[in-house]
Amino acid sequence: MSRLRCTVWREDWIRFVSTHFHDQPFISPCCTWIAAVVIVFSLVAPSPHASAQGSYADTHAMPVLPDMLARGDAGVARPDLYVSALINPAQLGAAWGNAPRFTVLGVTASGRPGRISDAIDLFEDELADIEERTDEEVDEVERQALDLFRRPLTLRSAVLLPSAAFRAGRVGMSAGAFVTQTARAQAIPGGVSPDIAVFGQTDGIVAVGAGVPIGMTGLRAGLTTRYVRRYVSTYRQRVEDYDVPPVLSGSTIAVDLGVQYDIAQVKGLTAGLAVYDLVGGNISYDQDDFFGAFDDEPEPGSVERAQSLLDDYDGPSMRLGLAYVIPRRYMPRMGDTTVLLDWSTASTTGARQSVFRRLRLGTDTKAGPLQFRAGLSQGLPTVGVGIDGRVVYIDYAIYGRQEGIIPEDGSTYAHAVQIRFGW
Fold first, then answer.
1. 380-390: per-residue pLDDT in tens?
2. Staple partner for 155: which of 111, 240, 319, 369, CB 3.0–4.6 Å?
3. By residue range, what is the domain housing residue 113?
């Protein structure tokens, strides 16, 4: 049925273009390319929907990237080379030179420092022995949890292990390893006692990607194969019943597809499409002691409850985007300035998000060793700066993000910083 629907759309589109734009050399190719993307989306894209029952595990494992977050979390049409295999492997097939590129090591952290410190105190000093407290003390802990976690509190970090990008003829390739971590807590009012939702995810990722120019001028395609080993700890219960959640683990091998097209009629304009978890990506979880750190016997039923929060796999997700490099003649005193626009099918909350909340818009301007970035992610402002020290790269961002059990609770802001060594 969907293929029949696509055939009708394609015929209508061709008729529309030929009728209205047959004498426009720029508009017709652009519209035809967009039509092709619409057909691909209708064939393989899942309908936008919520993530897994409030735990919203990030099925497409990727490190937090301050440079991308600062420009509105946009970049599928023009990702940075050092992580292009994770964002859009087609970028590896672009003309970026023949010299290999290396990342020796990188470290990233993201969160709100003051709130994170308060959260650690609450978990270690108040919730750890909640069963031993009086009713009045429990009420006070509940009040503190609501004040601190009414909006979700998230801490993210990542380690960029050695990686390399290199060429073999016309084919660009990359290989690298990454470790990512997400910890999130949120209090949900309701009933006699509020619930507290706790979620932690640690991913070990090995990614190998390749991209190559194909056929027509300006068209590139790429594939990435990712091995992901994931450890998850998730819990949602009343504050007065809080206990350390069990750790579950699983692994998967997933394949991502990327496509880019340099639109010849507008110099500097590139369209990009990435399909994540096109093959694989689903993880089955079993109890794990996380290298001996959680070897205590979990509470009866807690493992089953945690598994139930993770068993709703979202399936493949997609990003569609445009990137436009403004000609230098318009900004002769500045370096390259790029404007980027993305649309993502993946939800960042535990509920359905509107089309507007799936948009990412940003800009990136070079000025000597500095890069200035700004944008809008899900309607929330982002801003940041980067320093190119040739072998040391430092990126900083302040960004907004919508997350949480329900979107209305989830507009939060955080800082992110990364230091990376490579060339």
1. 999 999 999 98
2. 111
3. 55-422
